[in-house]
Every structure is written in C-alpha cells, then in structure tokens.
Amino acid sequence: FTTKALTGKRVVITAGPTQENIDPVRYITNHSSGKMGFALAEAAVEEGAEVILISGPVSLATPDRVERINVVSAQDMLVACESVMPSDIFIAVAAVADFRPQVVAKQKLKKQPDNEQGLLLELVRNPDILATIAAREDRPFCVGFAAETENLLEYAEKKLKAKNLNLIVANDVSNPAIGFNSDDNMITLVDRELNTTRLALTSKAKIARRLMELITSYYLKETHH
Ligand code: PMT
C-alpha cells in the first residue's frame, strides 16, 4: 500500500472553450476541444487528488472519479471556480474568450435596411479567471497555459509574471498537429526562475501524466512536504 502524492489534496482544473452569446442563436467561441484539460484531470486522479473539472461546452465524457461542473461563458466559469475555492492546486487549461459582446440581444439579430453595409459588434473584456484566482489571499498553487502562435517562451514568461503564477505551460498552437483539438501535444513547462522542461511530441494522455508529475513535484517542493 502506497499513499499517492496528492492524496487529500484538491485540484481544480478548467478546460474547453467558453461561449459568449451574441443573441439567442449565435455566440463567439474558439477551437478548444477540452482534450488537454480532461487528460490532466484523469492524471490528477491517478496522483490521488480530489479533482474538480470546470468545463466549457465540449463533447467529452467525464473521467472516472472526477467531479465536473459545466459552464458556458467566462463569467460563469469564474463564478464556478470561486465556488470551489480554496483548493491546493489550480490548473487553467481552458481557452477562455478574452472578450464578450457588450450586450446580448434579446431577440435574434436581423438583416435590416439600416445594416446593409454591415454590423458593428461591440466587445468588452472578460474577467481573467486565472489572474483572479492567483490574486486570492488563500491562493492555490497556480498553473497556467499559454497558447501562442509566435514568440512562445517570451510571451509565456510574460504571462507567468503578469498573472503571478507558479508555473506556465507554453503551448505552440501555430502547429495544427499540437494544441487546439489535436490528439497530441508538445509543451514546455516554465517555472518562476525561468527553468524550462520540454515534453516531446506525444499523446495528450501521456503529456498530461508527465506534466502532472512535474506539477506535483514543484507543488510539494514549494509547500515543503
Ligand atoms: O482543449 P484542447 O483542444 O485539448 O486544446 C488545448 C489548449 C490548446 C486549449 C490548451 O493546451 C491551452 O493552451 N490552453 C490555454 C488557452 C489559452 O486561452 O491561453 P491564453 O494564453 O489565452 O491564456 C493564458 C492563461 O490564462 C490560460 O491558462 C487561460 O486558461 C487563462 N485565462 C485566459 C483568459 C481569461 N479571461 N481567463 C483565464 O483564466
């Protein structure tokens, strides 16, 4: 009998896209499938953790022994995350929409004589879920993902500092074989001292297992277990 490293610890993971309504039938979203976040949830269960997975709209089955909370918008996702705090580890894998329509039309938007030339959609900033959780007094150990199409490590390091994270996972999404909606991934984990660990191209399930081991060892080091 061996006690797993995260036994008794709560891990909260966000996954999938968010949907930001324009009107009753239309919304803004992105290509996140939830695969990476769901694979990490499974890997966290394997480490013995109590796992809460807060997911945007995706078509994946909930992994065994994972508590799942479904949300639609970024605002919903923030409320759900705050409702399950405090936690020991927070991992933000979700591709949260940075902007949402300023007003959600009550009725379906119609083609009309006054919009023959086009329609201007005004967007406002969404809350940053990860930065909000990382700024709490009872802040968990915080891990972000950085989906970038250029200057991967530079932008990832900037996000690590700006959002006050413990770790960030740099994910090059310019390559369609990895990143959004692919079955495989290839990542670089960056810590606060800017040490990097590269995980070579393999399935998201395997990346998730290795990444969860790395996150666990950083977490245990930082909390002096
Ligand atoms: O779901 P898959 O199809 O498997 O694809 C996986 C993935 C490519 C979506 C995933 O690996 C990934 O990179 N997720 C982060 C996507 C993203 O939106 O990154 P970002 O660089 O825009 O955001 C940086 C970090 O802040 C992320 O941890 C994000 O969850 C978080 N964030 C961003 C904006 C916001 N309003 N709130 C947030 O919490």
UniProtKB/TrEMBL annotation:
Its cofactor is Mg(2+); FMN. GO terms for biological process: coenzyme A biosynthetic process; pantothenate catabolic process. Pathway: Cofactor biosynthesis; coenzyme A biosynthesis; CoA from (R)-pantothenate: step 2/5; Cofactor biosynthesis; coenzyme A biosynthesis; CoA from (R)-pantothenate: step 3/5. One of its GO terms (molecular function) is FMN binding. Residues 11-225 are annotated as: Phosphopantothenate--cysteine ligase. Binds 1 FMN per subunit. It comes from the Bacteria. The keyword tRNA processing does not apply. In the N-terminal section; belongs to the HFCD (homo-oligomeric flavin containing Cys decarboxylase) superfamily. Catalyzes two sequential steps in the biosynthesis of coenzyme A. In the first step cysteine is conjugated to 4'-phosphopantothenate to form 4-phosphopantothenoylcysteine. In the second step the latter compound is decarboxylated to form 4'-phosphopantotheine. Catalyzes two steps in the biosynthesis of coenzyme A. In the first step cysteine is conjugated to 4'-phosphopantothenate to form 4-phosphopantothenoylcysteine, in the latter compound is decarboxylated to form 4'-phosphopantotheine. This is Coenzyme A biosynthesis bifunctional protein CoaBC. It comes from Entomomonas moraniae. The chain holds residues 181 to 405 of 406 of the full protein.
